[in-house]
Each structure stands twice: as structure tokens, then as C-alpha cells.
Amino acid sequence: MRILLVEDDERVAEGVNAALNAAGFVVDQTNDGEDAWFRGDTENYAAAILDLGLPGLDGLSVLRKWRAAGQRLPVLILTARGDWSERVEGIDAGADDYLPKPFRMEELIARLRALIRRAAGQASALLVHGRITLDTRRMAVSVDGTPIHLSPQEYRLVSYLMQHAGRVVSQLELTEQLYAQDFERDSNAVEVLVGRVRRKLGAELIETRRGFGYLVEPDRS
Questions:
Q1: Are residues 169 and 207 both part of a single domain?
Q2: Which DSSP state fits 44?
Q3: Which residues pair with 26 in a beta bridge?
Q4: Do 160 and 177 form a contact (C-beta atoms < 8 A)?
Q5: Where are the beta strands (DSSP E) in the chain?
Q6: How far apart are alpha carbons 80 and 150 in whole angstroms?
Q7: Does one domain contain both 28 and 47?
Q8: Fewer Cβ close by (within 10 Å): the C or N end of the chain?
Q9: Which of 119, 139, 170 is the last residue before a domain boundary?
């Protein structure tokens, strides 16, 4: 899934970016408030991690502009400011969660996953579809309890479709969520990826809706 990381502290940004990539996310990174506002308003992100102390347009202003424009992406505020009144201000501005610095990367990832699950209407970290179980905490997939090895891209595909079960997801949306902006993508990359996943997990998991995209039906077991 594609995450927008907005952080002007280079050391913190590098650490968070590395942790997000290790956790299976695709990351777009910026240290500028105006650029963050534009990206969040025009691109399709699963969530945003937003620092408040940005140069130029500060984080709260970015968040208020997103919400005023109807942008509903989940937002986790990340800031060195620990005052309770500023936390309240951030939540009132439309933040979904708040994590003060310093923090543990494990907690950041856990909170981010929880935000994304809630936004998709998922209460559990375990996603089940028939014989297939996906554990978003361990980034692991199994069939009838047997672990199945997936590449990072294969895992991202399955995770995104299962977290949006019941909705047809276009090839363009999948491309945006699975690949970084500067990655050179083949026109049939998603189709090839879907084919590999079907061979590993079974052809019945992912349906093709010609001209529209791909679908994982909600689990009815």
C-alpha cells in the first residue's frame, strides 16, 4: 500500500521510510507542506504520516486543507510537540491518530496498520478468505494453515485486494498502490503479478472484471 510520509527531519524521515518499506509499504516522501498538501489532494494514498513542524505550510494547515477539500485519507500525526492542547488541536483538525517523538518504529507501524484497517472496515489484523489467511502484522499468507511464500509485490497485491474485498479495484489503482512513483512499470505488470498470485494461492481468489479491474469477494464462510 502507498503511504505519504511528510517529515522535514532527514534522520527521522530516513528511519521511518526504511521501516515502512520493511513492513511492506510503498512510500512517497516529502519535507515540504505545500508539496504534501498537493500530493495528498491529488494522489491516491492508503494513509499519510504527517509531521506538524514543517517549514512554510505547517502540518496542521495541511491537514485542515485536506479535510476542507473532503480528503478522507487516514492521517497519523508525527511530531516532537508533546503538549496535550496541541494533540487536541491535531485531532480536532481531522487527524486519526497522534504519535509524539521519540517513538518506537514498531508502534508507528502498528498504529498505521490499525488506521488502514479501520478505514477499510476491518477490525482484525487477520484477513480470511476461504482457505486463505493473511496476517497483516507478520506479513504472512497461508493456505489451510500452510505458509505460502510471496514476494513483497505479491504480498502487497493480495493485502490490498483482501483489505478492499467486495470492491472492484482498477489496474491503475493497483499500479499506484504497488509501485513507487519513480519505478518504471510495464503496462502488463499488474496482470503478470495477478497470474503469479493465482498460481500460488488458487485461481478462485482474484476475479477479473474485464474492462474494470480485479475483485476479491468478501469471505462468506
A1: yes
A2: -
A3: 2
A4: yes
A5: 2-6, 26-30, 47-51, 75-79, 97-100, 126-129, 132-135, 140-143, 146-148, 207-209, 213-215
A6: 37
A7: yes
A8: C
A9: 119
Tens digits of residue pLDDT in 156-182 = 999 999 988 899 999 988 988 888 765
Least confident interval from 114-128, 139-153, 203-217: 114-128
Number of domains comprising the chain = 2
CATH code of the domain in which 186 resides: 1.10.10.10
Q: What cell numbers appear for 71 in the block?
A: 480528503
Per residue in 199-211, pLDDT tens? 999 988 999 999 8
- Per-residue pLDDT reduced to its tens digit, 32-88: 999 999 999 998 899 999 998 888 899 999 999 999 999 989 999 987 766 667 777
In which domain, by residue range, is 67 found? Answer: 2-119
Read off the DSSP letter of residue 205: S
Q: Are the beta carbons of 8 and 51 closer than 8 angstroms?
A: yes
Helix (H) or strand (E) holding 199: helix 189-201
Q: What angle do CA 181, 187, 191 make, to 5 degrees?
A: 105
Place of cell 474485498: 165
